[in-house]
Amino acid sequence: MHSTSKTRTRGLLRGRLRDLIAELGPGRRLPSERDLSAEWGVARMTLRAAVDELVGEGLLERRHGSGTYIVFSPVLRVIGLTSFTHDMRSRGIEPSSRILDFRTITADDALAAHLRIPVGSPVFWISRLRLGNGEPVAIESVSIPVSYAPHLTRDDLEGSLYEVLGAKHGLVASAASMRIEPILPDQASADLLGIGVEQACLRVRMVDTDRSGRVVMLATCVYRGDKYQLRAEVSGAAGEADGRAVS
Known about the structure:
Shape: elongated
CATH class of the largest domain: Alpha Beta
Largest sheet: 6 strands, antiparallel
Structural class: alpha+beta
Oligomer: single chain
Distance between the termini: 73 Å
Number of domains: 2
Helix content: 25-40%
Number of helices: 7
Radius of gyration: 23 Å
Order of helices and strands: HHHEEEHEHEEHEHEEEEE
CATH topology of the largest domain: Chorismate lyase
CATH superfamily of the largest domain: Chorismate lyase-like
Strand content: 25-35%
């Protein structure tokens, strides 16, 4: 009978923990077991057993010396012109940024060719660490010709760059080409992302153009492989070209 009661209590605690997980969101730290057991009026060992079960299900993770955290499930992004900020918020995750670098550089031959601007033109160089619920997710590096957004400031870089460029500077990207590849991060990138150099990442290179075909932005993003996934939807029949079968 006592065992049945404890099993029932653990079941109720799992339910309360699931509610708490939904309320707090991915990446957040749970209150301590001491505080939760006191608040909910249950034995600490019984609470720990319920937490252990959710750890086993992959909903929670224990970090030595830090506490128990809600697992940050990978964000699944359908490839398209959506911002990091939109991706995060659409999944109930609070996005934020840490500006690593913001300065004006001079376009060399290679950069000028990619942006299709004269060599020597001033270009904004922006580097940001992107976070979801305070946890590092990606390192983003962006190049924008200064003449396209001459009044861009450091304060514009806290949220979605797409939104700021469109609303404040009238610079709207309507198409993009992407190159996606798996990489291992260098030590500096791994330190920023809070991972080891052996952990796989996704590197996404984007060339954004406006409706006239003008290149308005170059972006390179390095995403944590365990935090971000990309999905593409493709239509059309394989083996066909211009409506004709290929032999």
